[in-house]
Amino acid sequence: MGLSAFSSVALAGAKIEITANDQMQFDKKAIEVPAGEEVILVFNNVGKLPKAAMGHNVVILKPDSDVMAFGAGAVAAAANEYVPASGPLADQIVAHTKLLGPGETDTITFTLEAGVYKFLCSFPGHYALMQGTITAK
Ligand SMILES: [Cu+2]
Fold first, then answer.
1. Where are the domains positioned within the chain?
2. Alpha-helical runs (H) found in 1-136
3. Quick one: which of 70, 80, 87, 103 has the most CB atoms within 10 Å?
């Protein structure tokens, strides 16, 4: 049992929490997770502004994706809450949360091979500030 308790500490990165706020900021910019293991991501929008003005999501892109080009192109996917559903941009998506309004939470799970993944909020205009990296190793 001692070994198992130790293991759960070592794997604490398998559950991650990210918040976003009305200042267009994620609370984390660099996250590490274990490669090849299921990761639980809990995403909270702790802001107060309406979703139409300040909605947030977390979109995780494959390594080598161009986050700026993705953010610019995602504007065209308004009908799908700014997450492209098909085409070259959609092909870059590893996982994404729902677009959240104030006080909302979404939980997703995904598994990453070793690598450095970029994440962003794809709400129009947010990606310049709202991006970071998830390193799986
Ligand atoms: Cu946002």
1. 13-136
2. 2-10, 51-54, 67-74
3. 70
Rounded Cα distance between 111 and 131, Å, is 19
28 alpha carbon – ligand 1 mean position (Å): 13
**Residue 83 to residue 21: CA distance in whole angstroms:** 20
CATH class, range 13-136: mainly beta
Please name the residue ranges forming H helices in 25-105.
51-54, 67-74
Least confident of 9-18, 20-29, 82-91, 96-105: 9-18
pLDDT at 55 > cutoff 70: yes
Q: Model-level pTM greater than 0.85?
A: yes
Q: Output the CA 87–ligand 1 centroid distance in Å.
A: 22
Distance 114 CA to ligand 1 centre (A): 26
Q: At 107, phi and psi to the nearest 5? A: -125, 130
pLDDT of residue 44: 98
Cα–Cα distance between 129 and 96 in angstroms, integer? 18
Q: For residue 115, how far is its CA from the centre of ligand 1 (angstroms)? A: 24
Write the pLDDT tens digit of every residue in 98-109: 999 999 999 999
